[in-house]
Design a protein that fits this description.
globular, membrane, 698 residues, 9 strands, alpha+beta, transmembrane, single chain, six-stranded mixed β-sheet, transmembrane helix, 28 helices
Length: 698
Amino acid sequence: MNTCETDDWRSRRGAAAAGTAGDEPDVSRAGLCLARLTLVPALVLVSWLAVALPLLMAGVFTPLPAIALFVPVAALVLTFGLRAVRPPAGHGGRWGSWWTVAGLLAVTVAFCALQLATYSQQIVVRRDPASYFNFATWLAGHGSLPIHALQQAFGGADPALSFGSPAFYQHGSVLWPQFMAGTPMILAPVGRLAGPYAMLAVMPVLGGLAVLSFGGLVARLIGPRWAPAGALALALTWPMMMISRSIYSETAALVLMCGGLALTLDAVRSDRRLPALLGGLALGLTILVRIDGLRDVLPVVAYAGLLVALRRRTGPALFAGLVAGVAAGLIEGYTMSRPYLHYVGGSLVPLLYIGVAVVVVSALATLVIRRRGLPDLTRFRLPDLVVPVTFAVMAFFAARPKFQIVRRVPDNPDDRANAAYIAALQKSLRLPLDPNRQYSELSLHWVTWYIGVPATLLATIGAGLLARKLLRRRRTEWALPYAVIAWTTVTTLWRPGITPDQPWGSRRLIVVVLPGLLLFALWLVAWAVRNVRRLGYGPQIAAATAVAGVALIMVPTVLTSAGLAFTPTEQGEVAQARSMCHRIGPRATVLIVERVTADRFTQLIRGMCGVPSGRIQARPGSSTAAAEDVSRIARKVAAAGRRPVLLGANSADVAPYGRASQVFHVFTRRDSSSLVSAPQGTWSLTINVWMADPVYAG
């Protein structure tokens, strides 16, 4: 057996056996506080999701039972999860200082405050944030799925009447939300207890916790002194600000990803099984938040197999937690988001096959390594070759627009709607008309738009050097984070799988790609500072090197974000929606007679106003419904003992049926949309709704 691979692992096992963290004199209280504080957000989310999902599956997801169960579960999870904390001794016998803790908390609080001051009220369904809001609003009011259309309130079914809208799929007389339930389950209790403003304000807080969690990962992998700088580098990126101002699934996924990786590192270092189980669970539950997490966690399977092969008791625990989290997400998706899974089936099914293959290969590799030991990866100069290979991969993505244009032919209604949207954008931006173009070949350029070319180059160098060290069995604490970052970055850059306008498309980068590249870049800067000190240049030169390196990372980021960071978007929608609900009044059945208004407001009215709402299909070649269909269905509503209320985008849409009045008016700003350059500034947005309240004798 080749025993050279055991040196680093044995030293870690010996350190773990030396005693608990509280028994180690070389671990400062500040370091212990830093390590534990940065695990708390992920552990709290794990506790909440573990309680909320069974209640939702049982149809009894209401705040009081959920909170009553959450408190003891969270106490147990935090107790056992924080036992994993084993900060390594730093230079001079200390790991972390109170200045580090204060700096990290200052970045977190400042980021959270800025996002709270500028958070979006995006509740009118145009894109995913409003869809998540309306999903969460329904859960807040009802605590169960599916969403019931209440056909009896419309006098029964009618061929011109339907109830679905974007992100809410109709199946018979019920509707199923498009997305995974993780984020709505986090928001729903707040909405039930404190209302829509508080629900929207959860996202800046969650974004601050994601920045804090990332700082903890930086501290573990690079050093505690770099944690505030790492947190600030992520906080300054516009994608991080964007997902913290509106309801995006990526925000909670980032907390779970960073916290899960940090918890796994601590569990492996301390050789504790239960924290390893919780680390795997946190990583697995990213699937409950966003289905793309299934791709991101595949390297965790291989890493768990490696731990098993090395006879580390944390390996089976990590794998069990991961399987439990992934299973929870897949079960929820299959039972409550199946139309969405069907829509993404073209990429999901191959990913499931890849997942099975990874499990099989990992199992075989585990058996081989357990019997023969780790292979000698230094043969054939592999550590030296990995550096040019890293550069070659990044050079390929940089040059990709020169030799490839990615297109996709629409084969379903959603894809056709996306193609029409891209065509409209191309026309407004004066670009060549090519509605099937996906712009995926520009994915690396997206990265440079948000963190800059210098940071991307530093990250490439850092990734190559780290891979070299890993192949030489050094810096083994990087094994899992490196695998996750490298795998997800390459696969995401190759196929982002998202509507490509920016900054919208940047959400695909924010969970792993941008944080991972920032980690690599900061590690290289820290490595350079250490080498400057080792060469005896003195503290002033080392400090100048650190400042220069951090400036190279942050200055381009600030230049991109500055034009967007202080401009609130999607303002006034909550107040207008409440006013509209008041104007609609009691015992109403809402009939939306114009297509765009139906897309935007059908579920908002159903969930926020608490009245049945449906849409009357538009005439061919028109955006409004036929008058005979409107009159017929309105009379059926009146015959059922309810008030028919008609809504449209303009007074002309509803004036033929009664006195028209404007019930919703918003003139605000929204994120701009760019296809071939970084986003700059915001665009204006106007939304109007007009209402008529006709009287029918029945």
